[in-house]
Specification:
Distance between the termini: 17 Å
Number of strands: 9
CATH architecture of the largest domain: 3-Layer(aba) Sandwich
Helix content: 25-40%
CATH topology of the largest domain: Lysozyme-like
EC number: 3.5.1.28
Strand content: 15-25%
Organism: Sphingomonas jatrophae
Number of helices: 6
Shape: globular
CATH class of the largest domain: Alpha Beta
Protein name: N-acetylmuramoyl-L-alanine amidase
GO biological process, one term: cell wall organization
Order of helices and strands: EEEEHEEHHHEEHEH
Keywords: Cell wall biogenesis/degradation, Hydrolase
Radius of gyration: 17 Å
């Protein structure tokens, strides 16, 4: 894998489907990767939605493993949402600080976390690459929340390849790769079957 000066991956395994509206400004340093699931059943529907949206990820991996790049890795994308507290999740804060953070609204907590640097906080839109895996969230009888369908073997194979290449090319620390629900308040099953 090579990344050109525009931040686009040059490799036969990646189809370039750049969506300019997704790019929200320069991202000089990449500190992490966030793995998502789309909530949709096809790559075509996600690619179509990216035409008119400012929310989306840098990469999209279809169920058959076909991989699309939709934004430059040198550009921010809105893909994370409001951050969870990393020190609370990892039991690294003092009890008083944890109590204060837990009492915050999601918006206040997000501002509090945004003032920190990685690794004191999770990577966010300012410094992370988003990878979306096509997969629906389906409401299962007897469960309060929808459950995301399992990631396919082809998606996992391409996810491993893509993460390995991005980490090597952009010098991303592998400890800074997370599933979306780890870093933000999302459906817990999102990307739960993704492996890298």
């Amino acid at each position: 894998m090579l990344i050109n000066p525009e931040g686009m991956v040059i490799d036969d395994q990646v189809k370039l489907e750049r969506r300019p509206l997704l790019e929200r400004g320069p991202m000089p340093t990449v500190r992490g990767i966030i793995v998502h699931q789309t909530g949709s059943s096809t790559a075509a529907s996600s690619l179509a939605s990216y035409q008119n949206s400012s929310t989306g990820a840098h990469f999209l991996i279809d169920k058959d493993g076909t991989t699309y790049q939709t934004a430059s890795v040198h550009q921010r994308c809105n893909h994370v949402g409001k951050l969870r507290s990393r020190c609370v999740a990892e039991h690294a804060c003092a009890p008083r600080e944890a109590a204060q953070i837990n009492a915050m609204s999601p918006t206040t907590r997000n501002r509090h976390e945004a003032a920190k640097d990685v690794p004191a906080r999770y990577p966010d839109n300012r410094d992370s690459i988003g990878i979306e895996l096509v997969g629906r969230a389906v409401l299962v009888a007897g469960q309060a929340e929808a459950q995301y369908e399992s990631v396919t073997a082809e998606q996992n194979r391409m996810l491993v390849w893509l993460i390995d290449g991005l980490c090597e090319q952009l010098k991303i620390n592998r400890t800074e790769i997370f599933r979306h629900p780890t870093v933000s308040q999302k459906t817990p099953s999102e990307a739960s079957t993704a492996r890298w």
